[in-house]
């Protein structure tokens, strides 16, 4: 399974961006998928996940009510819709996947990772 992220770039304060995570070679339907962010000089942190079991979602407090994770099974893609962007949202965003596992935002639960996409939010 290979994951490819896209949709990063320069965002405005208060604006929106949508990130995409496409799975290749295998269907993502049975995978729990999460988005992580690594800010400048920071550790990689989990932001949101969507369960491959039941579609349940989780969000970390800093992005709750601003970010939405959802999947399009027809496109084998998981999205992260990011609204009300803040400069603190700046970082490299990674998607990660694990098969038949509960939704988790723990880095070490995931075995498949994308290469990351840069998001920079200007103030």
Mean pLDDT over the full residue set: 95
Q: Based on Cα principal axes, name the global outline.
A: globular
Beta-strand residue percentage: over 45%
Low-confidence stretches: none
Give helix and strand order, one letter per element, not per position: EEEEEEEEEEE
Distance from first to last alpha carbon: 37 Å
How is the secondary structure organized here?
Layout (H helix, E strand, L loop, with lengths): L1 E5 L2 E4 L4 E8 L6 E8 L6 E6 L6 E3 L7 E6 L4 E6 L8 E9 L12 E2 L3 E6 L1
Parallel strand pairs: 2-11
Antiparallel strand pairs: 1-3, 3-8, 4-5, 4-9, 5-6, 7-8, 9-10, 9-11
What does this protein look like?
With 123 residues, the protein is an all-beta fold. The chain is globular, with a radius of gyration of 13 Å. A hairpin with a 6-residue loop joins strand 4 and strand 5. The protein starts with a strand and ends with a strand. Strands 2, 4, 5, 6, 9, 10 and 11 form a seven-stranded mixed sheet that branches. A four-stranded antiparallel sheet has the order 1-3-8-7, with no helix packed on it. The protein is built from no helices and eleven strands. The model has no long low-confidence stretch (mean pLDDT 95).
Q: Gist?
A:
With 123 residues, the chain is mainly β. It contains no helices and eleven strands. A hairpin with a 6-residue loop joins strand 5 and strand 6.
